[in-house]
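Trying the structure run again after the queue cleared.
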Amino acid sequence: MSLRFPAIKAQTSSLALVSPALMLLGLLFFYPILLLFFTTLEGENIGNYAKVVGNGTSMQVFFNTLRIAVIVTVVDLLLAYPLAIYISRLSPGAKALAFFLVLIPLWTSQLVRTYAWMVLLGRNGPINNALVWLGIIDAPIRLANSEFAVVAGMTHILLPYMLLPIYNSVSKIDNSLFDAARGLGAGAFSTFTRVLMPLSIQGVLAGVSLVLVLSLGVFIMPALLGGGRVPVIALLIEQQAGSFLNWAMAGTLSAVLMVIVMITFFIIKVATRMFVRGRIDVAST
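Done. Tokens:
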């Protein structure tokens, strides 16, 4: 009993320290969400859920949003994984410089970065001019106001959210494990699949969940880089609330989006548990 009271006292003290932040979060974040959700269940508003599910256009927008989010997540993963490994092996000075370059996008307004991409992808922008100069194309092509522009902009802006969790996992791996794997005859592929990937999988899944969830709700880049031609759920919600003043439908779409986000988190959590359990079973045998 004497050992339990200090633990309970410590938990109570910790709860008291975080309670102001929890109350502020509940007042400014959870309360508006709950209010919006209950509004969609009042009276005839509940019928909007059937309209959303039964409307082929709305469901197509949801699938298009999820498809773009998956593409951005996969591209960010392919870019961030080798970059995290490379940074983890740099000297302290070079590592600080690399992190400075990686974190620069987070210090700049998302709107400014989006306009920068609009300049780069314009008909007379640097990318089109370079392609014409290299002889790859004969005349400037339309890069802006397209899905390619949206994916490129989202990939660039969300890359740090993928890189940092993966780097955190990779940097904690003891380099002697790689030497031991090579000493036992493992090649580069076997070392990656049997040493590096299992030990960094939690960072990978954390980065994937962050980028995937953030991609589902992005508004500025599809609106500006897509020019309204790339339908995503954030644009549909803004249209219902801003143009049609249909707050009930906008709330319904937001609620459906939150359900998709929660399902995504659940799937990633289950995948993490299954992978960890599988690694424990393999190690025990």
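The mean pLDDT is 82. Worth checking whether this holds up in the mutant runs.
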